[in-house]
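#lab-general

N.A. 3:47 PM
ok so I finally got the sequence cleaned up, no stray characters, all 516 residues accounted for. can someone with queue access submit it? mine expired

B.Y. 3:52 PM
send it over

N.A. 3:53 PM
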Amino acid sequence: MLVILLAQVPSLAAVGLFQAVSIYEIVVASLLLVVLAVVGMMARSNTLAAAVVALGLITAAGILVRYLDGSTASQFAFYLAVVAISFYQDRKLLLTGLVYVVAYHLFAVLVLYRDSFTSPTAGVDPVSWPATHLGFSLILVLLLMAGWRVTKKTDASASSDDDSFRISFEKAPVGMAVLTPSGEFLHVNGLLGELLGYEPEKLAGAGIRSIIHGDDLGDLGQAWEDMGNGATRSTTTWMRCLTGDGQGLWARLSLSLVPGAPKKPATVLLQLEDGSGAHREQSRLENLNRGKDEFVAAVGEDIRAPIGSILDLTAEAHRDPADLHHIVRQVESEAKAAAAIVDDLITSARADTVAVSVVARTLDAELLCQETLVGVPGAEQIPVEVGAASLWADPALTQRVLASLVSNAIRYGGHAVAVRTTSSGPDTVIQVIDDGPEIPVSERERIFNGDLRRGQPVTKPAAAGLSLTVARHLAQQMDGDIVYRRSGDGHNIFELRLPSEQIGMELDTEPVRIPA
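B.Y. 4:20 PM
back already:
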């Protein structure tokens, strides 16, 4: 405003000279404007400075009207001065300017142009002439003040929206950043810097590629393309990020394109969540589901073998019923094998939900082994060496466990299979021995973990891993266990360890204290 005021000093002097105004009047008018400008510059208060400069602008308009003899065109100088004062957006200054315009017109009617108004040939109404100009000035002032109100409301709303976004951005429970469409960071919130181990200020201006693992840059490019071309203008993906110390961080990365507006370029909103735990869990579940599918398929193949044998035997019986007794015995054997696989499958699936009923009593070890071998196809000729006479266990469960060990030895072990009972401390150990190939050290514990719940058949066929898993589970329900070891003479030994006698419970001899 001060520059506008000072610029009018030479401009008005030029107009005065052109209009043949006296030098004296031009000098006085120019000095008046310069004095007002100097006072405005020296004023200690911004309000006072603005008032003095506004007064100078209205004075300059009046001087111009004076130089042009009050012509209608010159009156627009007042409107321009009022508009210039409105830049301050101060009601008091604007109303002061309006009062000054009123005072000037009254002075003009009474003093400056009195002769023009009273002349019969003037054709100018001394009332309507100033009233018209004052009316237009008042309308202009009202319009300008209404414009301020709308502008302030809009600015306040925009400021409120900006403040809300800024607060949400900074306090968000996830890492957030605003990027350019080309991938440079503009703003980064504190949590994102904390997750990545960077100061937010250091990320500003860097490219998003600098925080993405090199092996995942292709995924980043695809995600960026999906975001730009997708219907929702957003995408979410898993990606490895690089932290400040060079470590990898699995993160769930969301990108959203925010379209631009007039004078506001488009931006990309990034959200990043630490997904290391979630990614590990997701990978575990995917492996588990895949393992379960493979395991069920493998067990199905194992069940198909005895069922196929049964179908072949029934077809043979139809063709040649002469040896029907032998065929029935074979069908029975294959049916028992299939039933054993199904029983193991059910037991494995229910291991965590259904408790096994255990009714333990003292058992004769030799008799138990002999009765078990009778029920296992192909085990009739297996020798039993007795070194321990008795054990404490559930007869049905123990026979089932031992039958699984013997069946596995016959099917998947060597040609020579034997059973031996021995004592080991407080336990009775029933050993199932075969001369098959050695199980690798890395697999010796895993062969007992091939169940449906874990979905990892570690042996082939799957029925072997399943039956060993179920056998160990049942043994542990009877306070026992099953272990595998390789003997020095090259034999596989599966040991079923069970208590030799009932384990007594020690009674608490401390007196019972009744609370007061």
